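call fold(seq) -> tokens
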Amino acid sequence: MEIKIKELTETELAEVVKIWNSVVEDGVAFPQMELLTLETGRDFFAGQSYTGVACNMESEVVGLYILHPNNVGRCGHICNASYAVRKDCRGHHIGEALVKDCMKKAKELDYRILQFNAVVKSNQTALALYKKLGFTQLGCIPNGFLLGDGNYEDIIPHYIELTT
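ret:
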């Protein structure tokens, strides 16, 4: 699937909120538990360092990512990101394009490290992608993620240096 990734505008906001909420409702990847409304979504996405939106050739939103600091001060050069792909568009390498675009944007914003704090162990697609792209696993935090079904799952933090 051919896509274009660009900065979020008001035009895509409702669809981006819908995709984000779909991942939150699934309860297997994002730590958030509350759904966004159009108003809270506008504030949430505007509060990021960058929100990228993937659109297909018909200008339909098929995915997104948020990029923001992972910490402050002396660790402010480390960023964090989250990715979401519309359910009916998964399996078309959109997630890979989002991660690559995010890494490029993070460098442009002078971040030096991209760190993922909570990659859920059962998310084998994400784990395989991060390995393919050269991320380093930082170990395992047992029962670090509360799944939507009430069970706990291990998380595997990852990072990659963006300056190399």
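The domain at 3-116 is CATH 3.40.630.30 (Aminopeptidase).
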